[in-house]
Amino acid sequence: MELHLVNYFVAVVDHGSVTAAARSLYITQPSLSQAIRTLERNLGSPLFERVGRRLVLTPAGRDFDAAARRLLADLGAARDKVDAVRELRAGSLELVTYSTFAIDPTVDLVRRFRERHPRITVTIFDTAGPEGVFTALRQGRAEVGISSLVGDHSPLHAVSLGEQELMLALPEALAATLPDPVSREAVRSVPLIVDLGSVPGNGVTPDLLAENAENVVVDSTRPSLTWDLVRLGAGATIVSRAVAASQLPAVTVRSVDPPLTQTVALLTRKPPLSPAAEAFLQLAGAQDWGE
């Protein structure tokens, strides 16, 4: 059934005549009369009967009137919800990342997004390394991912958010035994607290690990636990300069030689994306993103 026929029917009911309804709809009276006949033929029952100069509803017409008004009301409500999502007055954004980027850049990006779009709910999923991000996006469990670009991320779209400089954060007692900067070879003898499931996506490249990763003393997927252990002297960890400054101000931070960096990227499925995802990409400066 065509929706305009339902609107025409309700207009005739509300105005009491085809002439008045046609005038309100800005269509000709014959066109409206034909539309009502088409609707009655589709329904298999007359909807109006003439009483004097007015049209009144038949019993079938009264039943259809109630159903038609519910349909139009539900449609109006649905349109309002769609408009709200499109205009970012409602909706949600599913974001996936892993421990390496839990603070930098995720916190700042989400904070800025929520300031700009306070009615959008952001759900952040934690996963194991870049492959976990790629899988979550491909399976549709999230719409935007924050990850380093390692391995095969096709057919996802990606854009670089820039390079992170990675540092060795370590207790003072351990730092006293090491030069500044610390060579990668020397790091292989440093007890590390890292997330092995995210290697190399957490900045720990293979040349920082001893044979069989014997210098990894704690395999931790929880950044807050890792940082507490570093503060308590259990070992060192690899973090971005921004995370070291904000989360580990009381420990020693050393550069790695040669310098250690990683690319941070936003990833999405192929368009079309939700309005919330589009807005997140724009906020991150990723309007011109591509493969």
UniProtKB/TrEMBL annotation:
Q: Belongs to which family?
A: Belongs to the LysR transcriptional regulatory family.
Give the protein's recorded name: DNA-binding transcriptional regulator, LysR family
Annotated organism of origin: Rhodococcus tukisamuensis
- Gene Ontology CC, one term: protein-DNA complex
In this protein, which residues make up the domain named HTH lysR-type?
Answer: 1-58
A single GO molecular-function term is: DNA binding
Entry's InterPro entries?
LysR_HTH_N, LysR_subst-bd, WH-like_DNA-bd_sf, WH_DNA-bd_sf
Annotated keywords: Activator, DNA-binding, Transcription, Transcription regulation
Provide the transmembrane region boundaries: none
